[in-house]
Batch of 2 targets.
Target 1
Amino acid sequence: MLVASLFLTLAWADATGLGGSLPAWWLLPIAILLAVGGIDELVRLFALRNLLLPGWLLRIGAIAIPLAAAFGSQAFGVGANPSAASPVVALGWALVAFTAAMASLFLHEILCYREESRAIERLSAGVLGLAFIGLPLAFIVGLRLLCVAKHGSGQTALNAAGIIPLVSLVAVVKVGDIAAYSVGSLVGRHRLVPILSPGKTWEGAAASLAGSLVAAWLVLEGLGWDSPWQPLGGWITFGFVVGVAGMCGDLAESLFKRELRAKDSGRSLGGLGGVLDLIDSLLLAAPVAWFLWVQGT
């Protein structure tokens, strides 16, 4: 509840331009904290298998990727012309940052190479970490700036298009998570992937999709949002596809923990687990949500 309240408060401040801020200024620090927290947890998880990654280099890369998406969007800049902004170009800068971070990992391994140093394994794990955390966060940043770039930076009301794509992603995925946990705990009997994640059930998955569809309807239709711009396929397609992608993200983190023999990614958030436990379902859902909004009408 505390995390949800914090997000809603910051989303309100960002949407209304509190303090004269530009779009994403209130939310971008959260993306940076999530990037650092997620990378730190991955570094600790790989250390359990005696694979020591250059955490400082990965932190810089994971921060640079979503920052590049923000600064690559003209909607983020001072005095910019949002009508000329391209969401694909903005994400292109994130890919440039990702490539630079990957090249830095290669250079680090080249300069520090020793026999039997498991350089290729470290490189693979590091690039995977950047792709799993940094790039999805760039898509999340792109979602916040997407509609502002298309409709103009003057929209600052709470129901303006600028904040709706981001809220739609978070609502669909997190309501699905809550529904899956609640129903799965109460009536779940049939295991979804028993070896990988014994706690997940088909009953919970069905509840997750139902919850995602309800959240998509509420955000895109039920709350009276009057913009003609909708994601591709409307709220039904958005709720279903993004909901499924969210479940895949949750299972992806389960794969990490199972392979690295860890119960939780961390304990930085108390009962919620670690940062990755909080954002895992968002990571694979973000690119899907971004695509549906970009292709929307």
Target 2
Amino acid sequence: MIEKILRLGKEAAIYGLSSIVGRFLNFLLVPFYTNYLLPSEYGVVANLYAYIACVLIVYGYGMEQAYMRFVSSLEYGDTKEHFSTPFLSLMVTSVLFSGAIHLFSSDVSEWIGIDRTQSYFVAYAAWILCFDTLMVVPYASLRMAQKAKVFAALRILHIVLSLALNIVLIVLLGLKAEGVFIANLIASGVTFFILMSLTGKQFVPSFSPKLYRELLRFGLPYIPSGLATVAMQVIDRPILKSLTNDATVGIYQANFRLGVLMMLVVSMFDYAWRPFFLTHARDEGAKELFARVFTYFSVLMVFVFLAVSLFIDDLVRIHIGGGYFFSPAYWSGVEIVPWILLAFIFTGAYANFVVGVNIEKKTKYLPLVTGTGAVVSIGVNFALIPQYGMMGSAYATLAAYVVMAVGMYFVSQRFYPIRYEWGRLFRLAVAGAAVYVLSILWSVEPLSFEGIAVKFLLCVSFVVLVIALKVVMPAELSSTKSAIQGTSQ
């Protein structure tokens, strides 16, 4: 079991390299934007990207997940047919969708609350959507072929190119918000053509109607499910805008992005996790393996939650040149960060619990679970924003992910029951809560030597508690060490 978990960890680390570098570079864009864009300008960018995230789900209509599920078993044809059928479908529909959005960009901008004079933002967004959709199947093919290094390199290239173009277009050419979209469009287009040069040999002019019907049957439930999931991630921005103003949205968005480290942990895990559980689903002891993975992953997530929550006030106040890492105009939103981090912990739980639904092809239940989470998100946002402002949106995000994780757990247990290690997980929660409460009671000055030392001590205390409470067993640590030594020889 330890060896399999280590292989999962190794692949997650490689995928994570691209995510770490990519997310870090994207993270650098946040203070960049906060220093070069007004909160109202950043609010417009955040609002449109919220819609892009939602529409991307419709563009993809579950073909990524469907491709991965069926290419792993090759139930209907060979590998090239499994690549070409969903790719051709996405190529036709994405070009048609983007052409229509471009043609009616003025009307679309008015529908989503963007001034008609900025309708060209919508046209840029349409073709960003097109290129990002066309990369879905090629990227998924790299994951299923376990070409994690190639995948990572391409992801890093995309982000580096986008960052460089942002600097050129915004700083040197003064394009402001427009530069954000142009940089993304160029980066996506270049990455797509490079990606196709590497994976295009899998493409043949062949379309299998029988396979396509199965792909649609498996994938279409991901549209309402994906929309609901994305809604929980981004619907708070339009609601917050309608109940407050663009500046509040900009401050909220910038601080929401400070939760990137937790989202990074979840995303790097998920990249490796889906091929992993599909590959090992029928192995003897698979359910025990999946339960142990959840325990170890939860330990990592709680540690990241504590580390980021403790040091976030120090991070935003770091001096860079003549300014700060985060402009003081955005500091008022730092209080939302722990709640966003906690919400992402439940996102990680959901990623673990979805195993049964995928293995047993019960994706029809996804819209019910994620839809419930979206309804909770919308309802709590409208209920709490008038009283608590952006904190209301943070509370709504947490509530939605809790509901979604719990719902997915019960649905998956019905079809693919797994005995998770709840005793260990409870002790983990106790350890994490104890350290976090102590950090609140032990108030220290940000960026002071005493403060940094205290926070470091608290992080170490959490590790000690995890071992003392036997969340992680000493025998397992010994087995892990032996396995690592064995793979390095």
